[in-house]
Amino acid sequence: MMADRDARFGFAAAHDAPIPYLQRARDYYQALGYGAPYAWAHYAQVPFTPLAMPLAAARVVLITTAAPYQPDKGDQGPGAPYNAAAKFYGVYSRDTAIDHDLRIAHVAIDRDHTTAEDPGSYFPLPALRRAVAQGRIGALAPRFHGLPTNRSHATTLDIDCPQIVARCTADAVDAAILVPNCPVCHQSVGLAARQLEAAGIATVVMGCAKDIVEYVGVPRLLFSDFPLGNAAGRPNDGASQAATLELAFAVLERAPAARTTVQSPQVWAANAGWKDDYQNAARLSAAEIARRRADFDRQKAVAKDLRVGLPSAAQGLPAA
C-alpha cells in the first residue's frame, strides 16, 4: 500500500531524509552500554554578522577538524579504522600557501560508505586557492586552523574557540569557512562559528550532520546529504567539490539572517539505503555490539593517555 502510494505520487522513501545523528548516537552508545547519553550544546539565540564587503574583496580563512598525518601513529587511511593515536587536542595552524597531508582516520566518519581517500572531499584548501586565482574571493588567510574534536564543552568554549577567534583576528580575516567531519566535529565548528560571528567575522559551516549543527545554533549552514567525511563534496569528483564550495560562497554572501540552512541538491547515491547503516544499533548483533564496545574502550584508553600534559605537545603538533 505504502509502496503503491509512493510510486503514484513520486514520494521518496521514508528513510530518504537527513540522518538523525543526535538520536542515532544516543541509541548507539546506550546499546554499547555507556549509560547516560551525551548532552549536546544547544542555544536559542544565534549571533549573525553580515559579510561587510563583496566576497571578491574579502579575506577568507579555512577551519578544519582534520588532523595532520603523523607517520609514527599507525594507520590513518584511506580506509583506516578509528585511530585515537592520530587525534589532536589543541588548536593548530598551518601555512595556506603550501599543500598539507591531513587525514580523518581519528574521527567517526561513515566508514561503511566512504574511505576518505580524497582530501578534497573534506579539506578544500586547493579549491580555495583556485577561488582566489579566479577572483571569486579576495584573498586566502595566510594560515588555516585545526579545531580539535573535544567532547568537553568547557574545553571547546573556553580554550579552543577563543584561540580560533584570536588567530583569525590576528590574520585580519573577513569570513570563515568551517568544515567538520565527525558528529562532535560538527558541534565544535558550530560553537566556533558562533564565537567568530560575535567577534565580527562572517561564517559558513559546510557540514553533513544537519541536526547537530542546527541544534547548536549557527548563522549559516551549507548541508550536504552525504556520508560523514564528505562535507566539501563527493570524493574524486572535482565538479561536485567545486559546486559545493560555490554554494557555500553563495550562502556566505546572501544569507538573510541567523539560522540560514541551504541544502545542496547533490545526491550521494540513487539508493538512499546507506542512511540506515550509520551507527544503527538496531542492525547490530549482540556479538558485534560487544566487539565495538571492546574496541571503543581500547581507543578511549589511548586517547586518555594522549590528553596527559599539554594538548598540542602531546600530539607533536606545534601550536602555530
What is the element layout, followed by pairings?
Layout (H helix, E strand, L loop, with lengths): L1 H8 L11 H11 L27 E6 L2 E2 L23 E4 L6 E2 L21 H9 L5 E2 L2 E4 L6 H18 L4 E5 L3 H16 L3 E6 L2 H7 L3 E4 L14 H17 L5 E4 L22 H21 L4 H5 L5
Parallel strand pairs: 1-5, 1-6, 1-7, 7-8, 8-9, 9-10
Antiparallel strand pairs: 2-4, 3-6
Question: How many DSSP E strands?
Answer: 10
Radius of gyration: 19 Å
H/E order of the elements?
A: HHEEEEHEEHEHEHEHEHH
Main beta-sheet annotation: 8 strands, mixed
Shape label: globular
- Please state the average pLDDT score: 91
Helix content: 25-40%
Contiguous low-pLDDT stretches (5 residues minimum) are 310-316
Characteristic key phrases:
alpha/beta; 35% helix; 9 helices
Structure notes:
- With 320 residues, this protein is an alpha/beta fold.
- Helix 7 links the parallel strand 9 and strand 10.
- The longest helix has 21 residues.
Summarize the structure.
The protein is α/β, with parallel strands linked by helices and 320 residues long. It is built from nine helices and ten strands.
